[in-house]
Amino acid sequence: MNPAPGIWAVLPVKAFEGAKQRLAPLLSPAQRRALAEIMLGEVLAALAAARGLAGILVVTCDPRAAEMAARAGARVTDEGAREGHTGAVTAALRLLAREGRGGMLAVPGDIPAVTAAEIEAVLAAHRPAPAFTIAPARDDLGSNAVLCSPPDAVPLRFGDNSFFPHLDAARAAGIEPTIVRQVPGIATDIDSPADLAAFLRLPQAARTRAFAFLAAEGLSG
C-alpha cells in the first residue's frame, strides 16, 4: 500500500543537555535543560492538535525527547540528528520524499507560544505543489516555519539569517514563495534574553510562561 501523501511536520530536537547556552546569564544548566523540555512539550501539543497534518516526525538523538515525541504520537528518527538543524531537516525531507509524502512543514522546538491555529494558518496559505511557504522569525532573519511540497522542492539551509536566502532559493527553483505573518507564536523563538522578554509579552504557552518568570528578575536587571 502506498503511503498517504499528506503534509508531515518535521521537528528537529537537539540534546537537552547543554541546551540554550545564550540564556546562561539568566538560567542555570539545569534550568535551561528544563526549559528546552517544556518548550518541546508545548510545540508537540500544538502540532498534535493542528488539523491538516498527516503526521509528525521528530529528529533527535536525545532519549527524553524521543520519549516525549512517542508519547505525543510522533514518529522518531535519529537520522541526521547530530548534523545540526539543517542536517536534521534535510535527512527528514529525504525520508519523506522517499516515502512519497506530499509535503514537509519544518518547525523548531523552541517556539512554545505556537498554537494549532497558527499551524493551520500556514497550511491554509500553502499553494498546490510545487509550492513553498514560510513564516519568518520576529526579526525577519530566521525561518521559523518552512513548508515545502514536495518535501524536497527547495534546498534548505537554516541559521540566524536564513529567511531571505530561503526566499531566493525558492525563486531559483521556479517557485514564488508564500510568506505568512500574523503568527506571533511561530515568530517568537527563544534563544536569547531578548527573545525571552518578547515571549513573556505573549499570552499563550502557560507552562513555559510559568517557568520563564523565574528569569524575569534577570531580564529587568
Automatic annotation (TrEMBL):
Q: Which GO terms label this protein's molecular function in UniProt?
A: GTP binding; phospholactate guanylyltransferase activity
Query: Which GO biological-process labels does this protein carry?
Result: F420-0 metabolic process
Q: Quick check: keyword Transferase in the entry?
A: yes
**Pathway(s):** Cofactor biosynthesis; coenzyme F420 biosynthesis
Name of one Pfam family that matches? CofC
What is the E.C. number? 2.7.7.106
Top-rank taxon of the source lineage equals Bacteria
* Catalytic activity, reaction form: (2R)-3-phosphoglycerate + GTP + H(+) = 3-[(R)-glyceryl]-diphospho-5'-guanosine + diphosphate
SUPFAM superfamilies, per database record: Nucleotide-diphospho-sugar transferases
In this entry, which stretches build a coiled coil? none
Keywords assigned by UniProt?
A: GTP-binding, Nucleotide-binding, Nucleotidyltransferase, Transferase
What family is this protein classified in? Answer: Belongs to the CofC family.
* Known role: Guanylyltransferase that catalyzes the activation of (2R)-3-phosphoglycerate (3PG) as 3-[(R)-glyceryl]-diphospho-5'-guanosine, via the condensation of 3PG with GTP. It is involved in the biosynthesis of a derivative of the hydride carrier cofactor coenzyme F420, 3PG-F420.
The protein depicted here goes by the name 3-phospho-D-glycerate guanylyltransferase
Q: Which organism is it from?
A: Caldovatus sediminis
